[in-house]
Write the structure tokens for this entry.
Amino acid sequence: MAGWGRSTDNNMISDEGRSPVRYQIAPLLVHLANHSREQVMDEQPVSYRVMARQLRRERKVWPFGRAADEDVSDPRNCLYVHAKVANRDSGLAMLVRGRGENRWRSSDLGRMDYALSRNGWVRTAIELPPGTRPSELAEIGFQCVVVRPEEGRWRLDGLRGLEAVSKAFFLGPDYAPDPTLRSLPAGSSPWLNPRGEMRRIELAGPPQK
């Protein structure tokens, strides 16, 4: 019987090798026209708990505010934002400002290579202080940043289109996604930002029960 083995340090899987037993998550057919691939995790919340346990087993969880190589913060410290973008020689960084604060925290940690440079539906996370509540968030910002293309030349005429923001959420104590903070349907025309500019969305807080 064919086996599965880890082929890289960040757990990419190879189908080479043999084993008497094989464990794997059952595959799902997913249409990505209206979602990013991470939507599968939202619909199967246990996957977030499995992810968190694996990170801890690999000792890849850092204390809040101390980034280190490929390690990450506790997944429950992060705000997850789901958006549809169109980059042209550009990248996208998402930022969050808390109510009453004069600072913004970014998804790219100030690193150009952490910016989202692909198109379509994307998901990113922004690390926030442990225990941050949805009601404490004031705004989400979307910044167009310069990225280095494959040929190595810097392009300063980049343009980023933001077509929709479908949801933003935290993980609860059990790692399941909490109610969405904000939902914006796709409009007839996207926001267009040249490099170096940011647009923002005010957050109204979680839906009232």
Residues 34-202 form one domain. The two ends are 52 Å apart (CA to CA). Helices lie at 39-43, 46-57.
